[in-house]
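#struct-help
A.M.: can someone run this one for me? Single chain, 219 residues.
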Amino acid sequence: MSMRAVVLSHRGVADELGHVGDWLEDGGFVVERVYREDQPSLPTADLLVVLGSPNSVAEGFCQPPARGEIEAVRQWVTADRPYLGICFGAQVLSCALGGSVRRMPSTFRAFAELDCIAPTFSELSGRWAVWHEDAITAPPGSEVLARLPHADAAFRFGRAVGLQPHIEFTSSIVERLATTVKLPDDGWRSLHDDVRANENDHAARSRRLLDALFDRAVR
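D.P.: on it. Structure tokens below:
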């Protein structure tokens, strides 16, 4: 019997599933897309995936639509439903569960090494595509799985997982996103080139990480 995954994102901005989409397809998930612009209610599913956003849930920057999304995610997670939040999706999860998100002085874009602090999730070790301007402090009662020097980078709470790194990114996704948000070349080219040089490895590690999270945390 097929499982159903709901994916919440914007239309045309940070909406590409990349490696996560490949993993969902190979796992037999039927994917339903819902878009923030439509102010949707979340349909019942076996997994909710929340992707990135140019919006913010950082203290002092959170607008009413984002507060509504925080509440929807809170209801989803407290009902013990599986959840995967990537970048903004991880920030929403933190806020929904009593953690915090702060605005950083500048946007961080890098193919960055995570400090993996959870031995049972060693798949988080290594370098990942990271692009964010808001920094997470994981909620009380959660298990922090990995950190960046300036923020918690991965955490779990029950069957919910938040990941700051963009495990879905390919080099082509980086380029399209940068073009969409009109970044100057020097704002994204280094990340793009690092992801491109490690394209196959990043894809394989993303798949292994998703397998591990789903088997040990989300299922």
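A.M.: thanks! The longest helix spans residues 199-218.
D.P.: also worth noting: The chain has a mean pLDDT of 96.
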